[in-house]
Amino acid sequence: MVVTMRQVAQHAGVSLKTVSNVVNHYEHVSASMRSRVLTAIDDLGYQMNVTARNLSTGRTGMLALALPELQLPYFAELADAVMDAADDLGYTVLIEPTAGMRTGELEVLRSPRRSMSDGLIYSPTALREADRAALSVDFPMVLLGERALASSVDHVAMANEVGGRMVTEHLLAQGCRRIAIVGAHDAETGAGSLRQRGARSALEAAGLDSDVASAGAQRWSRETGRAAVMDLLAREVRFDGLLALNDAMALGAMRALWEAGVDVPGQVRVAGFDDIEESRYARPSLTTVNPGRAEIARRAVQLLVDRIEGRAVEAAEYQVPAALVVRESTR
Amino acid sequence: MVVTMRQVAQHAGVSLKTVSNVVNHYEHVSASMRSRVLTAIDDLGYQMNVTARNLSTGRTGMLALALPELQLPYFAELADAVMDAADDLGYTVLIEPTAGMRTGELEVLRSPRRSMSDGLIYSPTALREADRAALSVDFPMVLLGERALASSVDHVAMANEVGGRMVTEHLLAQGCRRIAIVGAHDAETGAGSLRQRGARSALEAAGLDSDVASAGAQRWSRETGRAAVMDLLAREVRFDGLLALNDAMALGAMRALWEAGVDVPGQVRVAGFDDIEESRYARPSLTTVNPGRAEIARRAVQLLVDRIEGRAVEAAEYQVPAALVVRESTR
DNA sequence: GTGAAAGCGCTAACAG
DNA sequence: CTGTTAGCGCTTTCAC
């Protein structure tokens, strides 16, 4: 039999409300009342039923975080950062995996489970232009990504385009002249296209061919990076630089280059994007762009909580600055 | 204003109960009733309030999963596997990070948030002998790990000891004679000590020194692996084989060896434990033990759900078999 | 400062 | 097969 607040009240000889006040750290409770209640709680081993409180308050204290999958290291690290940030503000994170698929991403917006969280941090990767309408939701949400898709929603964007340009300029400065890009997919929007656009602009500014070769990939994993390089090699594409649109692919690419006997950075310099921890330990360690993950997480959570708690005014947009991290793979 | 079931009922001209029946796919509802209700739901844009249902049923449909942090790749992959398994049975996973600390691990058992999930999958790493009592809980729980700590709770264990022995025997078979072990901590229980015990038994069986050198580590990360090897090297310990008690440390160790100009597997063969995805892409790819993560996740979820739904009888224990995965780092 | 009563939105007997 | 009636355990006016 589970102990309820009412029983605690009885045991302590006070009213229900008093127990509630104590439990919720309400200011004006006499010390004696408080300690009486506390003792009763202890005696009975009372534990608050959070679900009941949720129903009563209309809040759950949970933030949903929608992302493709934790197996992709970037998202695991992001999730960790979001959990930390949420915890600081007294919220818990509920991770909603979308498998990086459009259906999964739309599902998150509509599932009844949505009502179990007070708001949503949403990082869509597969949504299309046609899904724009789905983003007009009536609950607190902040989008991780560009303003492109929905304009009237809070956004926290990373510097994809600038980052893409920076890292490409670095490759150029290191002497690369034929840079292959790995991970492009034909989405007209999203991180991929922006990073790519940044890269192209750097190449064009240097008067170089901005389309040496690109290998696409839907899922940005080590495996797709590896496959992309094997494809480039099979097609005998020549390149002296390789920009993978995220670190996981870059790591897979380096593996494939090594298997093929291509020296990095000797014959090909390789760079990625995301600055996941793994990149620091790779052989060679990977040059990449640090998108400011912790800052993104903090901003997103703060924005969402402001909205939930009614402090937000109009749709905000933050752009978190990126930083180039030069390591062995491009030296 | 949010739409409730009552309003749907009114709009459809039926009773509350009928709407509930339809929404919950209750068998015996006439087709006409059903479609009337469905139309009303559609008209009004009704969305079930899951919290209210939770309070009413006493269930939340959520399973809590306590683990150190998602930044450690093994746990990210485990979380993914648990989420998949839970999803198959109609449950959602709520991840509870413990930071790998005793206080965090105890907190999970006591926090009021506990009542937001129907059960707990618990993978303690820092609990001590003295905490045994804390594991006598009155809610459904399955422990990931050995029976050592609590005997009357459902367990799903991986083959730590056997795995440790297998991988060590492999190192020996490859000619290693002085094997250093990385990651030992002095816990008398837990995965580390078991893997180590397996390793020692293999060494002793071969008549070799089972205590060449070991470097401890509390947090089993790439960084601690790297630091451990730097320490061994600084102490000029000689070894021709290195067993890290998990892959992350092995990867960090390989990085340190490379930095020190030690060839793997030429001068030192390296092996890990966990078979995380990253190990397949490392240079050289890492020999390791596959503990059957997916199977562990499936079993744990199944066991927990059985208990939650009242199908479980007495405390069960599963031991999932491990498999040696030989790769370049020991060839 | 503390108590009584009315819900929060849904489920589940139990009738009908 | 459908409707009525109580709760689930907590919060929250609003009196006292």
TrEMBL record, chains A, B:
UniProt xrefs under SUPFAM superfamilies: lambda repressor-like DNA-binding domains, Periplasmic binding protein-like I
Keywords: DNA-binding, Transcription, Transcription regulation
Pfam families: LacI, Peripla_BP_3
An example Gene Ontology molecular-function term: transcription cis-regulatory region binding
Presence of the UniProt keyword Transcription regulation in the record: yes
Residue span(s) of domain HTH lacI-type: 3-57
Domain of life: Bacteria
InterPro entries: HTH_LacI, LacI/GalR-like_sensor, Lambda_DNA-bd_dom_sf, Peripla_BP_I
SMART domains linked: HTH_LACI
Species this chain originates from: Ruania alba
Annotated protein name in UniProt: DNA-binding transcriptional regulator, LacI/PurR family
